[in-house]
Amino acid sequence: MADETHVLDAPPEGAAADWTIPQGWDAYTPEEHRVWDTLYERQIRLLPGRASKAYLKGLDALRLSESGIPNFEELSERLMKLTGWQVVAVPGLVPDDVFFDHMANRRFVSGNFIRRPDQLDYLQEPDVFHDVFGHVPMLADPVFADYLEAYGRGGLRALELGALKQLARLYWYTVEFGLVEEDEGLRIYGAGIVSSSAESVFALDDPSPHRIGFDLERVMRTEYRIDDFQQNYFVVPSFDELLRVTVETDFAPLYERIVPLPPLPVAALTAEDKVLHHGTQAYARGKAGG
Ligand code: HBI
Ligand code: FE
Fold first, then answer.
1. Helices marked H in 84-141
2. What is the pTM of this model?
3. What are the φ/ψ torsions at residue 141 (nearest 5 degrees)?
4. How far is the CA of 280 from the centre of ligand 1 (A)?
5. Whose CA is nearest to atom 4 of ligand 1?
6. Selecting from 3.30.110.70, 1.10.800.10, 3.30.450.40, 1.25.40.390, what CATH number does the domain 25-289 have?
């Protein structure tokens, strides 16, 4: 997800008009591959029993257990066969219209750089571990793959209707930090959680954050923080339901109604909320357990 300060305003040297660049897989150093392996091994110990079935199935189907930073060409070949998506390399955050256009055409943009060994726990910009390990396995799920394409098309429309902030919140509370209900309990599908060892625990186990039943309008009105654990998570009953709501909603009147309304602050609760867990809000910046 972007925080706009880093978005360049023109394709950098060597990038195509659509901002894609060669991944440069051969140029990765053994140390960079080792960073991927370190992050992968840490997450794969945590995720069974925490990540959604769809995520774990995608991780397996795309053979992301193989060592080292994946080669986007090989990864895209497998992914195309499953859901028609491919992974393309970009130099970093790209302008919203470029981002949405790729998504509307089933191209997932991924940074090709990887964080340094001293940045294992957090970095602002989405690197290849966040983008590929975090986002790509869900693209192997046909229903979620349809949702993300619909999101991309919706993004282009939201730009025209001046409702980008509302749409970015939908992305944030589903694609980045979404939870889903499964028979055994709540599970993670959001890339921002699944690629973070601390938040993979916090999001499900910590008593602090609210866990609220997903409601499209509610989510589109809710602010979010980009630099710390979430204080509220939204839970979809299924990806079918998430797709159905997104495809069936006429966004123009929805935007007309909610764009003029004040946003709902992080951690607020409303009378209409289906509160699955009323958080203690005990977590303060940097004090999370684990
Ligand atoms: N660019 N590479 C990249 N990755 C993102 O996640 C991204 C982006 N540009 C815009 C963006 N995200 C968000 O601002 C949109 O979802 C609104
Ligand atoms: Fe992301």
1. 96-104, 128
2. 0.94
3. -90, 120
4. 31
5. 93
6. 1.10.800.10
Q: What is the pLDDT along the chain (290 residues), one digit of tens a residue?
A: 444 445 667 787 777 889 999 999 999 999 999 999 999 999 999 999 999 999 999 999 999 999 999 999 999 999 999 999 999 999 989 999 999 999 999 999 999 999 999 988 877 789 999 999 999 999 999 999 999 999 999 999 999 999 999 999 999 999 999 999 999 999 999 999 999 999 999 999 999 999 999 999 999 999 998 989 999 999 999 999 999 999 999 999 999 999 999 999 999 999 999 999 999 999 876 554 43
Annotated binding residue 135:
yes
**Is ligand 1 within 6 A of the CB of residue 171?**
yes
Distances (CA, A) of 145 to 36, 136, 151, 257: 25, 10, 10, 28
Q: Find the ligand nearest to 154 CA.
A: 1
Residue whose structure tokens are 């750089």: 113
176 labeled binding residue: yes
Structure tokens at 186: 């709540």
CB of 223 closer than 8 Å to CB of 266: yes
Contact 212, 232 (CB under 8 A): yes
Q: Say if strands 179-182 and 185-188 run parallel, antiparallel, or are unpaired.
A: antiparallel
